[in-house]
Amino acid sequence: MSRTTRIIPIPVLGRNGINAYLLLGRRPVVVDAGTPGSGRKIHDAIAAHGVDPADVSLIVLTHGHIDHFGSAAELSRLTGAPVAGHVADLGPYRSGRVREPYLPTGPMGRLMARNGKLHARAEPVEPEVLLRGETDLSETDLSDYGIEARVMPTPGHTAGSVSVLTGQGDLVAGDLIANSFMGLIPGRPASPPFHDDPVGNLASLKRMLDLDPTRLHVGHGSPLEPARVRRWAAREERRLARRRAAGRLRTRGPEPDPQGLL
């Protein structure tokens, strides 16, 4: 009999300006590791929920941006858990630097791109569990790590972006989508400030919505309702089509294949 996976947000900045997540099943799994210097905060939050941090079986990184992998190495040392990351984002993980320049999705991104903290260097981390592929066919089952869930490749925000879909339909979505203004307006779907490939990201989002998730737990903001996200996605598809027709849609080319791993 499968066991329900409980989703617990761990705010790293503000109430939920930046979120990591604790997933509880037979064993705990952590999704994302916040900004540099927040490993101890995440560790202590795990313990505050009655979980021994040493029991964490895996740390899954949704993508190679500094607010999601910034404390991965520290958190791995504190818990003893291995790190899982997609091979297409190995460059940022191994160097501690995100791939630049950031490609803003709107005014918020253009403003944030001037923030020096986004361009800081995190402690490099070497994922021990390598995730591969770009489609559902290359999903990774997490049952061996103690939760009924799958890691789903969702490229677009970065080439190596992934989401975690639990057996009961909760989608821990990283930056596949966000709440407006970096989580400040709860419940209102929006693009995060940056996407390497907005069209590719929207395709990944629609593919996840086709799986009928119950809720979307995001890196920035409170959980989102799928019906509202579907309406937003339809509008976003029209907006991107207009920008593409006008020649104003910037995308990043494919990253070099690190050591032929893809």
From TrEMBL:
Question: In what residue span(s) does the Metallo-beta-lactamase domain sit?
Answer: 17-220
Sorted alphabetically, which CDD domains does this protein's record hold? yflN-like_MBL-fold
The source's superkingdom equals Bacteria
Region of interest (Disordered), ranges: 243-262
User: Do you know which SUPFAM superfamilies this protein is assigned to?
Assistant: Metallo-hydrolase/oxidoreductase (SSF56281)
Q: Which Gene3D superfamilies match?
A: Ribonuclease Z/Hydroxyacylglutathione hydrolase-like
Q: Which InterPro entries match?
A: Metallo-B-lactamas, NDM-1-like, RibonucZ/Hydroxyglut_hydro
UniProt-recorded name of the protein:
Metallo-beta-lactamase domain-containing protein
- Which species expresses this protein natively? Streptomyces katrae
Origin organism lineage: Bacteria, Bacillati, Actinomycetota, Actinomycetes, Kitasatosporales
